[in-house]
Amino acid sequence: MWPYPKIIAHRGGGSLAPENTLAAMQCGLNRGFHAVEFDVMLTKDLVPVLLHDEKLGRTVAGQGQVSEMLAQDLFQLEAGSWFAPEFAGCRVPSYTQVLEFCAKNEIWMNVEIKPAAGFDTLTGKITGEITRDFYQKNTQFNAPLPLFSSFSLDALAAVKLAAPLIPRAVLFDQIPANWHEHLRALDAVALHTNQQHLTATLAHEIKQAGYGLSCYTVNEIARAHELLSWGVDALFTDRLDLIGADFT
Ligand code: G3P
Ligand code: MG
């Protein structure tokens, strides 16, 4: 997986399709994207699924907390029509479905572990175990190993324990002064951060220390050039139409 793919489709297909769905990944693939970021959360019965929000209602028709819903009930709900009528019928995919889709299509994954409040360790552990077992069983795919990331340090500690051989990145909205300590403690290979707060000096420090560095969410060409000129390795973008897979 190293070095990073440079341009990564954010939440599956960025602004082209309903986030965190297989249709989104297919849209990215149709545009030549073989690198994707998505968010993973647990249902009540501990099934990892692709969702960004803890609550239903924004991208998935329904109400309530994902952590209080059984996977079989969640999979019945509409997850595409909020975005555009042609996506009606899209469903929330299970993480396992996505692992298969990405392996078959040789898509590199940044699996962002997005635990609902209170489920940090469990989400990291289960996501790690499923991923580890998938790559142990499915050697025929020759798929590149994914990269885990999370804002939750507890989730990262748990995924490290469950799947020590799969690399990790620490996600920060604003990079704290003790960022290096956190990366070291988790034996992380990279730091992912909000592009809005990154400075050239910090980028330089992180690269000098030997870590990968990725920024979300970069939707403007000038900013993309600037960040790459600072040594940033990879950009998460919603604008797959503007910042293409072959962006230089
Ligand atoms: O993983 C990078 C980025 O996706 C983090 O923010 O809120 O879009 O999951 P968010
Ligand atoms: Mg994310």
UniProtKB/TrEMBL annotation:
GO process annotations (BP): lipid metabolic process
Pfam families membership: GDPD
InterPro entries linked to this entry: GP_PDE_dom (IPR030395), PLC-like_Pdiesterase_TIM-brl (IPR017946)
PROSITE patterns: GP_PDE
Domain of life: Bacteria
GO molecular function: phosphoric diester hydrolase activity
Species: Solimicrobium silvestre
Gene3D superfamilies (UniProt xref): Phosphatidylinositol (PI) phosphodiesterase
GP-PDE domain ranges (all copies): 5-247
Entry protein name: Glycerophosphoryl diester phosphodiesterase
CDD domains found in the cross-reference section: GDPD_EcUgpQ_like
